[in-house]
């Protein structure tokens, strides 16, 4: 019987067959979250080990670092190991956040659809997570460590002052009158949130023909019911270089700061003729937010 076992083990050697023993994949180097955010490239994916403050909310989870608190990354869990999973769950249930070290795949800004016009693809970076608000994403495959966030942690005060996660909102649009007049610019609005709902708005600056649509969209925003306070947001309205024969849906980007960028294609003007066969009265933009009729000679 022992002789038979020896023959079985010797056969692969006699036949020239290589026996390969699979080795565990090496643990990726630990990289600061701020460095990952700063160097992230569009379409990039890399294996990383990264630490930070993990925070969960109604609409998702983020990882942040006290050194760059305004550059959070969206987090999705796809765990290959259950180590530290229950410990993290327990800590989140009690505190809502934890000091962690994650291992997984880090993604830079997404690639725009090839079906979009070239002019849009050059400037458009699809976001990750809720409403596409995050530039980067981390897919967690292993939880290396979990600790409570100390009260004297340098990022504790900053975390409490972060903008809340937006839970619901209507899709922003380019105000039709402003779009027809090809008005661009930024509308800055201060808004008040009470029990998660926008209760007051004040336009600080921006073209008048764009402000009304901005406020109307902002009033549809909803946050968690415990969110209260005043915040400031900027809506940026941009016209692309490519004209279209008929109106198309604008491209909407929402940044982690809750700022909104709306890019629309201008519609080609349709020449109008009077009964005498001459061009009818035209309109031209006069000052910010005003349309003035051009007088025919």
TrEMBL record:
Pfam families: TonB_C (PF03544)
Gene3D superfamilies reported for this sequence: TonB (3.30.2420.10)
Keyword Signal on entry: yes
Keyword terms: Signal
Domain of life: Bacteria
GO biological process, one term: transmembrane transport
Keyword Signal: yes
Protein name: TonB C-terminal domain-containing protein
Domain TonB C-terminal: 172-235
Annotated InterPro entries: TonB_C
SUPFAM superfamilies named in the record: TolA/TonB C-terminal domain
Signal peptide: 1-23
């Amino acid at each position: 019987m022992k002789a038979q076992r020896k023959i079985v083990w010797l056969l692969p050697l006699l036949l020239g067959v290589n026996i390969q023993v699979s080795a565990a994949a090496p643990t990726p180097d630990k990289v600061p979250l701020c460095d990952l955010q700063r160097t992230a490239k569009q379409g990039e994916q890399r294996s990383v080990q990264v630490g930070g403050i993990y925070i969960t909310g109604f609409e998702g989870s983020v990882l942040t670092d006290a050194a760059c608190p305004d550059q959070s990354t969206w987090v999705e869990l796809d765990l290959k190991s259950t180590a530290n999973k229950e410990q993290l769950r327990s800590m989140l249930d009690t505190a809502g956040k934890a000091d962690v070290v994650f291992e997984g795949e880090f993604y830079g800004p997404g690639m725009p659809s090839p079906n979009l016009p070239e002019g849009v693809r050059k400037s458009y970076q699809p976001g990750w997570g809720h409403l596409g608000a995050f530039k980067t994403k981390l897919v967690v495959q292993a939880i290396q460590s979990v600790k409570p966030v100390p009260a004297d942690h340098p990022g504790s005060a900053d975390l409490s002052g972060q903008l809340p996660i937006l839970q619901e909102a209507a899709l922003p649009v380019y105000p039709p009158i402003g779009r027809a007049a090809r008005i661009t610019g930024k509308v800055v609005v201060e808004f008040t949130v009470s029990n998660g709902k926008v209760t007051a708005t004040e336009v600080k600056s921006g073209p008048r023909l764009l402000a009304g649509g901005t406020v109307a969209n902002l009033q549809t925003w909803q946050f968690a019911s415990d969110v209260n306070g005043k915040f400031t947001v900027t809506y940026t309205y941009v016209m692309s270089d490519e004209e279209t024969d008929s109106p198309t849906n604008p491209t909407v980007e929402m940044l982690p700061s809750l700022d909104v960028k709306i890019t629309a294609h201008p519609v080609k003007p349709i020449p109008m003729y009077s009964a005498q066969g001459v061009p009818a009265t035209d309109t031209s933009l006069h000052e910010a937010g005003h349309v003035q009729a051009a007088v025919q000679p």
